[in-house]
Design brief:
It contains three helices and five strands, in the order βαββββαα. With 120 residues, the chain is an alpha+beta fold. Strands 4-3-2-1-5 form a five-stranded antiparallel beta sheet.
Length: 120
Amino acid sequence: MNNEQIKVGIPVFLKPVNDAARYGRKDVLEKTVLKIGKKYFYVGDTGETETRRMFKFSLEDMTQATEYSADWELYLSKQEVIDEEEKERLIFEIRSVFNRWSSVDLTLDQLRRIHAVISE
């Protein structure tokens, strides 16, 4: 994702992370880019005029600009969010199979195929 794709009026998707996710927010929000400055851009509901009610993001690295830890990750499409969540789920499932405290219940052939894929 680069800042050339950010234009006023485009829809963006915000995924809750850190405290926002920890304290109950699970839904992805669809917002609109409302304002673009030299260093930051602002995201909110269409028609919003008060900057204090908008989410502020850095143009440099597309992360939420805040004094504390970010509560939202920005995506340009809903599919990016779905892909990221699937990637996290698959990594979790693969790690749980190969947890060093459990025995691996795979055949030698399955292990060889897995090794071939991860060796690419």
